[in-house]
Amino acid sequence: MTPTLIHLFDKVYIDDMQYIDSTMWGAVIYDGAADITDSDPSHSLWRGNNLADALGETSFVDKMAEIAALDKKYVIYADASAFGEIVAKWMKSATNMDQAAFDKFIDLTFHKKTRLGRGSEVFKAACKAAWSGAVAEDLSSLNVSYSIEFLLPSIFHNSSHAKKPQLKTLINNFVKRTYEDYIIEGKWFVDLNFMKKSVQTHLGLPEGAATKDETNFLELPDLAIFDNAWFNESGTKDPGSNGKVDLSTVPSSDLDALKTTTDKIMAMMGDLSVFDNWAYLSSVAGSGLTDEEFNSVIESIKTSNYMLPYIPWAQEETIVFEFLSYVQDLAVNADTTTLQKYSLK
Fold it and tell me: What is the distance between the alpha carbons of residues 330 and 134, in angstroms, rounded to a whole number?
């Protein structure tokens, strides 16, 4: 069952309580929470029969700060009432939404949930009903990073928004991940097909030379670039430090060969090149996007006709793409009034 989390901030998410992942859950707030038997009570750092019960004497903002300080993936599982109350309270505190704007966000969020087999009219209705009674909190003391869903409209509305540095960091990571994903997919294709002579010839096998096998195929001229410590052959098929390649560890002297080899592999796969021709490769592998490059990426996201470039589809568990496409359309049509409602305070 695919999780359909709503990203609140940092590594903190909220979901309904029907499918609790007991290896990572951090809170359970629903009528009867006290009846849960937890083999490892340290998982449940926050629980209660409703939000007020779970908070006790702690304020909502202080509880959010406490969770943020844990610096680990933390999921709040809640029943319909608590789910709606928390989502409405957070959104009213963090953004400038009114009831109509919030309802649209909820409609698109639950379209995603339905698409992934997790739709619930009960939870959807509970969210909308909670808005009018939700009290906005002052989050100015909360030092957290916000989700892409609200960072993006903030910058679309005001290019000098105070949260611009947060979005710049996030976009840098997204662009970096985009390139890492291309590299990993290319190498994965080779791993599946390297025994074909046509593949080996394409990747530099000299005419008349003996074909390579699983013990030495990285000796092919175009694959030698992967025979480096920075490429983790046994890593999971993921980008970044926990997967096969983290571009921040690749020496600048290897970047051109890595790009060229990946392009040659992609040609076999039917693609000509990365859609932006690796425009920002040296930056994201080095000190990060410049302000000019960041602005260029944001403009690409805004004006792309049929996609949301750089925003990783692999993260649809935690990103509401339906909402981001709506935000993109608002920006294209210069609907600053609605964009302001989705902007962060």
Answer: 26
CA separation for the pair 141, 137 (Å, rounded): 10
**Strands in 10-148 per DSSP E:** 12-16, 25-29, 46-48, 74-78
Could you read off the pLDDT tens digit of each residue along the chain, which spans 345 residues? 566 889 999 999 999 876 666 666 678 887 766 666 554 555 556 888 889 999 999 999 999 999 999 898 899 989 999 999 999 999 999 999 999 999 999 999 999 999 988 888 999 999 999 999 999 999 999 999 999 999 999 999 999 999 999 999 999 999 999 999 999 999 999 999 999 999 999 999 999 999 999 999 999 999 999 999 999 999 999 999 989 999 999 999 999 999 999 999 999 998 767 889 999 999 999 999 999 999 999 999 999 988 899 999 888 889 999 999 999 999 999 999 999 999 999
Contact 29, 76 (CB under 8 A): yes
Q: Which residue has the tokens 């009290």?
A: 135
**SS3 of 151-189:** HHHHHHHCCCCCCHHHHHHHHHHHHHHHHHHHHHHHHHH
Please choose, from the candidates 177, 183, 220, the residue with its C-alpha nearest in 3D space to the C-alpha of residue 200. Answer: 220
Distance CA 16, CA 195 (A): 47
Distance CA 46, CA 44 (A): 5
Burial per residue of 85-118, b for 16 or more beta-carbon CB atoms within 10 angstroms, e otherwise = bbbbbbbbbbbbbeeebbebbbebbbebbeeeeb
Q: Helix, strand, or coil here: 27?
A: strand
Beta bridge partners of 48: 29
d(CA 48, CA 32): 8
Q: Which residues pair with 245 in a beta bridge?
A: 231, 239
Q: Count CB atoms within 10 A of the CB of residue 21.
A: 12
pTM of the model: 0.92
